[in-house]
């Protein structure tokens, strides 16, 4: 059963990026560089942390997400959002510092808290951008992402704080963003 949930998580995790990449190629989405750098770093390190703490099949979504985030990151470097504010810079610096401390922290609980903090700070530039341009972010991408992380939790081999907390935060952050961007789109109609 865990294998089936892991495969479903991976399939949905890959499907997460299909509408996003399609919208990037159409030019209707401009990913924010200061969001995609920490998301790439945290999912890559999150994979290693989850796998090394017994996450098993449920850990592999982090690896897939890291590769897909890296692809969006490369696109963002050349064609991403160019309007960068002081808030974006502050969130970016905070998220990168959290990732750096996270990598060198020996305490697993502190590491997971730092990873979740870095990921949430990575959302700040995308929230800020989406307040003004809510149509620049396809809600379906974040629905898929949140759901894929929920499935990855179900696919975990071991349920510990170290394996569950970070993907749970990702589920919550993605769904909160969906509510936010949906509300903003409705408010601007």
What does this structure look like?
The chain has 189 residues and is mainly alpha-helical. The chain has one domain. 80% of the residues lie in helices and 0% in strands. Helix 5 runs parallel beside helix 7. The radius of gyration is 16 Å and the shape is globular.
In short:
This protein has 189 residues and is mainly α. Helix content is 80%, strand content 0%.
Keywords:
mainly alpha; 189 residues; 80% helix; globular
What layout of secondary structure does this protein have?
Elements: H1 2-26, H2 33-52, H3 60-79, H4 86-104, H5 108-132, H6 139-154, H7 161-187
Helix pairs in contact: 1-3, 1-6, 2-3, 2-4, 2-5, 4-5, 5-7, 6-7
Oligomer classification: single chain
Q: Supply the number of helical segments.
A: 7
Poorly predicted parts: none
How many β-strands, per DSSP?
A: 0
Order of helices and strands: HHHHHHH
- Counting structural domains, the number is 1
The description of the largest β-sheet is: none
Please give the alpha-carbon distance between the first and last residues.
44 Å
- Taking all Cα atoms into account, the compactness measure Rg is 16 Å
Whole-number mean pLDDT: 89
Tell me the β content. Answer: under 5%
- Helicity, as a percent range: over 70%
Secondary-structure class: mainly alpha
Overall 3D form: globular
């Amino acid at each position: 059963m865990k294998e089936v949930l892991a495969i479903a998580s991976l399939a949905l995790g890959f499907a997460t990026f299909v509408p996003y990449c399609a919208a990037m190629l159409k030019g209707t989405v401009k990913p924010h560089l200061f969001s995609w750098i920490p998301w790439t770093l945290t999912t890559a390190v999150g994979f290693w942390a989850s796998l090394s703490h017994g996450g098993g099949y449920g850990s592999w979504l982090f690896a897939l997400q890291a590769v897909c985030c890296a692809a969006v990151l490369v696109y963002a470097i050349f064609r991403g959002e160019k309007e960068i504010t002081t808030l974006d810079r502050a969130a970016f610096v905070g998220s990168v510092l959290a990732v750096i401390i996270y990598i060198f922290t020996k305490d697993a609980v502190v590491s997971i808290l730092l990873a979740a903090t870095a990921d949430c700070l990575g959302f700040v530039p995308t929230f800020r951008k989406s307040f003004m341009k809510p149509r620049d972010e396809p809600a379906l991408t974040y629905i898929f992402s949140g759901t894929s992380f929920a499935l990855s939790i179900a696919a975990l081999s071991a349920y510990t704080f170290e394996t569950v907390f970070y993907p749970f935060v990702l589920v919550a952050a993605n769904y909160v963003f969906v509510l936010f961007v949906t509300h903003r789109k409705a408010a601007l109609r």
